């Protein structure tokens, strides 16, 4: 493993524990890798406990249990209890599927701090279509139960062209459900969302209109509901400061134990992402090739290398650079200084064309059958 | 929203105040976020346990640090804390 002594390595603060790739839903924008079906192996309860202890010792404190659907793990409460004892602030990121009142109480007693429920749309018809499962009613129930049992209620809605017209109704739904936090997550185009981009990417007009509505709502509910608005970077001219800088803050562990500097890093070539069954979290974080790959700024090319904004956005997202430019060292194509910006503009134009076409290309849903067919 | 001096101040049940050994400081944890506190902010917030009024918090801290004239600083900080939802009154 390559050492790096010249960099000042900060310890991880956020641990994302992807407990399982199993999920009863089939969202066509799922951020799981397209080939997830290739990794059916899951870490054992003891493996996860070891990971939690090691990361906590280094300073990780925010913990997200996600997936797939983390509720598919029978040992979830046990892991929540263990995390609480270690002092984590833990979050269950769930579709709500299979979440009963009994389980909500059990998780609360185990020490879970909050539950983030995702809803696909503001109507049953669209929600169930996007989820590929009948879930709308149950999700509404779950949201109410989360609130009833004293958790801060975080509602998450992923925004894209199929539901962006529902923005006013989505906001109304969040208000009616009494959400304490509302995450309006404009789709990030990785994994399945990348595959379905022509059908998901909103036009600039749609995006601007929706943003204006969300902005006005934010002011209206200030002090009552906190809105996290995740921007769709395609329509910006600067990239996001991806992961707050590579290997500075976030640590993701995939269901099979692969440690990832970001949840799409698995798709980058030659990173050799290490597995928690072979190395300790400390070794992985400090010494592994993958976590040191894009630390600091030495790896950058022009125009990033001599740009005075490089400490602000770290050159953007490596996965986006790879997906668009086939060069993971290049400037994020979202940036207007990138010579490849035209590729983003072409993607926007292509999606707009698809939206005007008489018959839209069907969505490819996220499920094992499609995952296996794609590879 | 400002602090009412006649009502006890408690820490929000929707947030968690905790000592972080790795960072050697107190932090406030909440969904998707974390605020690192300096020592004086942490001292103040630890007294927001639902049993004290503003005046008592000031008196306790002035006694603890053998000083006087903290009223303004503490009130200002608590107003910010209230606006951020870290503390609440009845
Ligand atoms: S995005 Fe949808 S399909 Fe993917 S893990 Fe979440 S709920 Fe399941
Ligand atoms: S050139 Fe690179 S560092 Fe400069 S703003 Fe664009 S992405 Fe950021």
Automatic annotation (TrEMBL), chain A:
The keyword Oxidoreductase applies. The lineage of its organism: Bacteria, Pseudomonadati, Pseudomonadota, Gammaproteobacteria, Methylococcales. Pathway: Cofactor biosynthesis; pyrroloquinoline quinone biosynthesis. PROSITE patterns: MOAA_NIFB_PQQE, RADICAL_SAM. Binds 1 [4Fe-4S] cluster. The cluster is coordinated with 3 cysteines and an exchangeable S-adenosyl-L-methionine. It catalyses: [PQQ precursor protein] + S-adenosyl-L-methionine = E-Y cross-linked-[PQQ precursor protein] + 5'-deoxyadenosine + L-methionine + H(+). Involved in heme d1 biosynthesis. Radical SAM enzyme that catalyzes the removal of two propionate side chains from the intermediate 12,18-didecarboxysiroheme (DDSH) and may introduce the keto functions on rings A and B, yielding the heme d1 precursor dihydro-heme d1. Catalyzes the cross-linking of a glutamate residue and a tyrosine residue in the PqqA protein as part of the biosynthesis of pyrroloquinoline quinone (PQQ). Interacts with PqqD. The interaction is necessary for activity of PqqE. Its EC number is 1.21.98.4. This is PqqA peptide cyclase. Keywords: 4Fe-4S, Iron, Iron-sulfur, Metal-binding, Oxidoreductase, PQQ biosynthesis, S-adenosyl-L-methionine. InterPro entries: 4Fe4S-binding_SPASM_dom, AdoMet-like_SPASM_containing, Aldolase_TIM, Elp3/MiaA/NifB-like_rSAM, MoaA_NifB_PqqE_Fe-S-bd_CS, PQQ_synth_PqqE_bac, PqqE-like, Radical_SAM_PqqE_MftC-like. Pfam families: Radical_SAM, SPASM.
TrEMBL record, chain B:
Keywords: PQQ biosynthesis. GO terms for molecular function: quinone binding. It comes from the Bacteria. One of its GO terms (biological process) is pyrroloquinoline quinone biosynthetic process. Pathway: Cofactor biosynthesis; pyrroloquinoline quinone biosynthesis. The keyword Protein biosynthesis does not apply. Monomer. Interacts with PqqE. This is Coenzyme PQQ synthesis protein D. It comes from Methylomonas lenta.
């Amino acid at each position: 493993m390559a050492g790096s002594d010249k960099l000042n390595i900060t310890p991880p603060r956020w641990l994302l524990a992807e407990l399982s790739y199993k999920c009863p839903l089939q969202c066509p924008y799922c951020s799981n890798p397209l080939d997830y079906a290739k990794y059916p192996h899951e870490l054992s309860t003891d493996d996860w406990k070891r990971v939690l202890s090691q990361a906590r010792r280094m300073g990780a404190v925010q913990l997200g249990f996600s997936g797939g659907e983390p509720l598919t793990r029978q040992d979830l409460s046990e892991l929540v209890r263990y995390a609480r004892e270690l002092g984590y602030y833990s979050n269950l990121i769930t579709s709500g599927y299979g979440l009963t009142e009994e389980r909500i109480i059990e998780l609360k007693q185990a020490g879970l701090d909050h539950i983030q429920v995702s809803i696909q749309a503001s109507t049953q018809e669209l929600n169930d279509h996007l989820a590929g499962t009948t879930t709308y009613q149950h999700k509404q129930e779950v949201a109410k139960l989360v609130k009833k049992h004293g958790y801060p209620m975080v509602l998450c809605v992923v925004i894209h062209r199929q539901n962006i017209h529902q923005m006013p109704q989505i906001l109304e739904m969040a208000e009616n459900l009494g959400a304490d936090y509302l995450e309006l997550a404009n789709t990030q185009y990785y994994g399945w969302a990348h595959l379905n981009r022509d059908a998901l990417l909103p036009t600039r007009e749609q995006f601007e209109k929706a943003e204006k509505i969300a902005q006005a709502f934010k002011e209206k509910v200030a002090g009552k509901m906190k809105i996290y608005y995740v921007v769709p970077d395609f329509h910006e001219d600067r990239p996001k400061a991806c992961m707050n800088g590579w290997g500075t803050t976030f640590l993701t562990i995939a269901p099979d134990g692969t440690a990832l500097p970001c949840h799409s890093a698995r798709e980058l070539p030659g990173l050799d992402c290490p597995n928690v069954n072979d190395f300790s979290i400390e070794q992985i974080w400090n010494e592994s090739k993958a976590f040191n790959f894009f630390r600091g700024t030495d790896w950058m090319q022009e125009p990033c290398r001599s740009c005075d904004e490089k400490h602000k956005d770290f050159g953007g997202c490596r996965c986006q650079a790879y997906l668009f430019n086939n060069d993971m060292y290049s400037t994020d194509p979202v940036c207007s200084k990138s010579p490849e910006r035209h590729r983003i503009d072409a993607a926007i134009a292509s999606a707009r064309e698809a939206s005007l076409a008489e018959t839209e290309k069907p969505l490819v849903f996220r499920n094992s059958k499609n995952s296996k067919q794609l590879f | 929203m400002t602090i009412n001096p006649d009502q006890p101040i408690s820490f929000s049940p929707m947030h968690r105040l905790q000592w972080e050994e790795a960072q050697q400081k107190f932090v406030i944890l909440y969904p998707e976020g974390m605020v690192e506190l300096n020592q004086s902010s942490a001292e103040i917030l630890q007294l927001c346990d639902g049993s004290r009024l503003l005046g008592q918090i000031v008196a306790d801290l002035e006694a603890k640090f053998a000083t006087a004239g903290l009223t303004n600083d503490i009130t200002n900080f608590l107003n910010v804390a209230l606006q951020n939802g870290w503390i609440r009154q009845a």
